[in-house]
Structure formats: C-alpha cells, structure tokens
Amino acid sequence: MGQIEEWFYRSLAGIVPDEANPGFKHFFIKPELVGDLSFVKASYKSVYGKIVSEWEKKDGQLILNIEIPPNTSASVIIPVSNVAHMKVNGESFAELNLVENKSGFTLGSGIYKIECSL
User: Fold this and answer.
1) Alpha helices (H) in 1-109, listed in sequence order
2) Theoretical Cys-Cys bridge with 69: which of 41, 49, 88, 99, CB 3.0 to 4.6 Å?
3) Which CATH superfamily is domain 2-117 in?
4) Predicted confidence (pLDDT) per residue in 53-81, tens digit
5) Which residues contact 91 (CB under 8 A, 6 or more apart)?
6) How far is it, in rounded angstroms, from Cα 57 to Cα 49?
C-alpha cells in the first residue's frame, strides 16, 4: 500500500519534501485537483510537527487549509491560473509569483486558509 499512500500525500494532498532541506524544514504544498474529486484531507507527522493539507472545491471556489509546523516554511503552489481574488486568512494576497500557470508563494509556520476562484 506504500505507493498508494505516497500518491495520496504527494499528489492529491500535495505534501512534498524539499530535497535541499531534509526532514521537512522546508517543504512544498502543491495539491492536484483531480477529476470529480471534491475534497482531500491529509496530515503528516514530521520531525518538526504536524503538516496539514486539506482542500475542497465548492461553488466554483478552491478552499485550501494548511498547517505549517513551528520553525519551518512551505512553498505553496495552487493549481489555478486566476489569482485575482485570492485571499489568505480572509485578506487579499496581492504579491504572488506565477509558476507554470499556478500561483506560488512561501509561508512561514502557522495555520492558513486560502480561498480562490477555480
């Protein structure tokens, strides 16, 4: 079952280690929205603490809830090209970099709710 679990964590939930920073000191959150799947919830216990990646497609919106453990950071890559109305914890997030038609940015430790149009 190892390959199925890896596909779930790395692909669907998007929890991906950064090879340059072993032990999840820095990692990536880059979920894949697949077919008719409407939500994914996953967590991983790293040496720094629990990493959470949960997403839901609802009413034309993507809602991504993530938790980044203390003393770590994550590069978040959201699989949408329209980031005009993106909000992070309820506030507009205007300073985004576009990476491969996906919005990408780095966040420090904390709990975040990211909302954007699909």
Assistant:
1) 2-6
2) 49
3) Maltose phosphorylase, domain 3 (2.60.420.10)
4) 999 999 989 999 999 999 999 999 988 77
5) none
6) 27
